[in-house]
Amino acid sequence: MAQGNLRRSSDHLMEDREAGEYYRKLAESSGESNSQIEKNVAFIRELKEYWNKVHECEGFDIDGIHAPQGSNPLVRVDCKKVYRYPAFVDLYAELGLHHYNLLEGTNFQFSELIKYNMTCNCLSSY
After folding, report:
1. For the chain, N or C: smaller number of CB within 10 Å?
2. First-to-last C-alpha distance (Å) of the chain
3. Where are the domains of the chain?
4. Who contacts 110 (Cβ-Cβ below 8 Å, separation ≥6)?
């Protein structure tokens, strides 16, 4: 199943029934078995539930939210340990805080990045 075609924002995911019907039509035309179709529809449903939970907590404190196996979930990075590209990540954190200050009319100052969440992306070359 092409998991990359699902959009991550819960606002853009199809409703369960709509996604299931769409996938069933697509899978039936490719000759997939009914059991495989049902597994994939269940995966789509679980993935939608995962991203809805992430959306509800606005991406913060995701430790108790479990993604379905085989998906591309958010990964928690602890900044108190060694992490990759600290200057780059800190710059994005400062930019995000500046954006928040502009939207909310606040004047918070960046002092330290404790943790952040990221997705892992894979690149294939053929």
Report:
1. C
2. 19
3. 1-71, 73-126
4. 90, 93, 94, 97
